[in-house]
Structures are given as structure tokens and as C-alpha cells.
Amino acid sequence: MKVVVSIGGSVLAPNLEPDRVAEYAATLQTLDEAGHTLGAVVGGGPTARDYIESARELGANEIELDQLGIAVTRLNGRLLIAALDDRAAPTPAESYESGREAIRRGDIPVLGGIVAAQTTDAVAAAFAEYVDADLLVYATSVAGVYDDDPKEDPEATRFDHLTASELVDIIAGMEMAAGSNAPVDLLAAKVIERAGIPTVVLDGTDPERIRAAVADREFDGTEIVPEA
Ligand code: UTP
């Protein structure tokens, strides 16, 4: 199976702890050895937010802040590459094309951000579409897609299954609410809908859940099913 795994920066490298990064690399290696074709997309997490906050104070504009964010996602990508050793392409792919070329060579591409004004959620969806992935996995810090931010509202309920167009409607509603934090952003949801990619959003703080979702198709999270 061809799988794109999106690993949020807050999940992969909340504090740059090497053992954590090694666990995600080991999970990808296990799936690789089981014969799956993989691509990984890595977010910027708290380190990106720290840089962005500081540069905003210094007067950087939003595009400059995005460029800073992209740089940090690629730094996190290099951490994962270091842990993956020879199985990964040696540098983070800076375009979808070079990521796809890495897959063709038999390497595991690691992507960070690609262009300003989006997030790695959207990069993962676009890359999954581009390489015709069978499955897209979002390993995030929440256990799926909820009707409200579960970190803010303890009453929030999780959706176990959604169609892609339902996902778009829910995320659009959440993004209208100031300060809300959707597990997948609206652009990503639109690409998932357009491409019809089977997608799973799960709590990725334990990398074993990523392995189980891919290898056993067993997961506790939200499954997004393409429309017939
Ligand atoms: P992330 O995708 O990591 O943001 O990109 P996030 O979703 O808030 O963080 P985690 O990792 O899931 O916790 C970090 C920042 O990098 C820029 C944006 O500014 C984004 O907020 N970025 C990222 C881009 O401009 N383009 C990209 O393609 C990716």
C-alpha cells in the first residue's frame, strides 16, 4: 500500500527529544520493511511557533513568517531523516516532484512545508494526491476530528466516520470560529475531497498507532471516506 504519513511537529518534536524522533523513524522502517511505499510530511510544531512569534515582534510580514515556518518544518524533517538513516532521501524534498522522484528511486521522501500561506496539513494532502496514495494518515495531537476543539471543550464529541464533504463542512465551520484549532485545515480537507483519498486522523502521540492504522487498518480516530 502507498501511504503518506503526516506527522505534526508537536507530535514528532515537541522538545527535540531524540528518542521520540527515533520511535517515529522505527515505525516508518517497520512499515517499509513490511512492503509499504511511504512518504512522510513533517510539521514545525512549537519550535516553528516560537520563531514565528519572535519574528512577528520584529516586524516580519506574514509571508516572511511562513517562510520561517517552512524552514523549521524542514529542520524537523532533517531530524527524521537523521533517524531514518539510509532509507530516507538525504534532504527534505522542497517540491512535490522531488518527493515523487524519491519514491520512484525507492527512498522514503520526507517533506516539510512547500509554499507560503498553507500548512503541512495541505502539503500532505497534495502530496498524497500527487503520488496517488492509497491512504493518508494524519498523526496529530488530538484523537480525531471533533465537533469542537476538544482541548477547549471537554464535551466535544468525535466523529468516527465522515465523508470528505462532511469533513469540509465541519472544518469550514471550525475555522470561522476565532482561535479554533482544527486537526486538519480547510485546504487539506478540500484536497482530500477533490482527490478522494481515504484518510485517517488519529492521536499520533504514540507512533504505534500509526503502525496499526497502516498495517492492521485498526485505529481509534476519525476515518474520512471518499464519496462513491
Ligand atoms: P505546520 O504545518 O507545522 O503548522 O507549519 P501547524 O499545523 O500549526 O503545526 P504542527 O506541526 O501540526 O503542530 C508551520 C508553519 O510553517 C508555514 C506556516 O506559517 C505554518 O504555520 N508553512 C508550512 C507554510 O507557509 N507553508 C507550508 O507549506 C507549510
From TrEMBL:
<feature type="binding site">
    <location>
        <position position="49"/>
    </location>
    <ligand>
        <name>ATP</name>
    </ligand>
</feature>
<dbReference type="InterPro" id="IPR036393">
    <property type="entry name" value="AceGlu_kinase-like_sf"/>
</dbReference>
<comment type="function">
    <text>Catalyzes the reversible phosphorylation of UMP to UDP.</text>
</comment>
<feature type="binding site">
    <location>
        <position position="66"/>
    </location>
    <ligand>
        <name>UMP</name>
    </ligand>
</feature>
<dbReference type="InterPro" id="IPR011817">
    <property type="entry name" value="Uridylate_kinase"/>
</dbReference>
<feature type="binding site">
    <location>
        <position position="146"/>
    </location>
    <ligand>
        <name>ATP</name>
    </ligand>
</feature>
<comment type="subunit">
    <text>Homohexamer.</text>
</comment>
<feature type="domain" description="Aspartate/glutamate/uridylate kinase">
    <location>
        <begin position="1"/>
        <end position="203"/>
    </location>
</feature>
<feature type="binding site">
    <location>
        <position position="44"/>
    </location>
    <ligand>
        <name>UMP</name>
    </ligand>
</feature>
<protein>
    <recommendedName>
        <fullName>Uridylate kinase</fullName>
        <ecNumber>2.7.4.22</ecNumber>
    </recommendedName>
</protein>
<dbReference type="GO" id="GO:0005737">
    <property type="term" value="C:cytoplasm"/>
</dbReference>
<dbReference type="GO" id="GO:0044210">
    <property type="term" value="P:'de novo' CTP biosynthetic process"/>
</dbReference>
<keyword id="KW-0067">ATP-binding</keyword>
<dbReference type="GO" id="GO:0005524">
    <property type="term" value="F:ATP binding"/>
</dbReference>
<comment type="similarity">
    <text>Belongs to the UMP kinase family.</text>
</comment>
<dbReference type="GO" id="GO:0006225">
    <property type="term" value="P:UDP biosynthetic process"/>
</dbReference>
<dbReference type="Pfam" id="PF00696">
    <property type="entry name" value="AA_kinase"/>
</dbReference>
<dbReference type="GO" id="GO:0033862">
    <property type="term" value="F:UMP kinase activity"/>
</dbReference>
<feature type="binding site">
    <location>
        <begin position="114"/>
        <end position="120"/>
    </location>
    <ligand>
        <name>UMP</name>
    </ligand>
</feature>
<keyword id="KW-0665">Pyrimidine biosynthesis</keyword>
<keyword id="KW-0418">Kinase</keyword>
<feature type="binding site">
    <location>
        <position position="140"/>
    </location>
    <ligand>
        <name>ATP</name>
    </ligand>
</feature>
<dbReference type="InterPro" id="IPR011818">
    <property type="entry name" value="Uridylate_kinase_arch/spir"/>
</dbReference>
<keyword id="KW-0963">Cytoplasm</keyword>
<keyword id="KW-0547">Nucleotide-binding</keyword>
<feature type="binding site">
    <location>
        <position position="45"/>
    </location>
    <ligand>
        <name>ATP</name>
    </ligand>
</feature>
<feature type="binding site">
    <location>
        <begin position="9"/>
        <end position="10"/>
    </location>
    <ligand>
        <name>ATP</name>
    </ligand>
</feature>
<comment type="pathway">
    <text>Pyrimidine metabolism; CTP biosynthesis via de novo pathway; UDP from UMP (UMPK route): step 1/1.</text>
</comment>
<keyword id="KW-0808">Transferase</keyword>
<feature type="binding site">
    <location>
        <position position="149"/>
    </location>
    <ligand>
        <name>ATP</name>
    </ligand>
</feature>
<dbReference type="InterPro" id="IPR001048">
    <property type="entry name" value="Asp/Glu/Uridylate_kinase"/>
</dbReference>
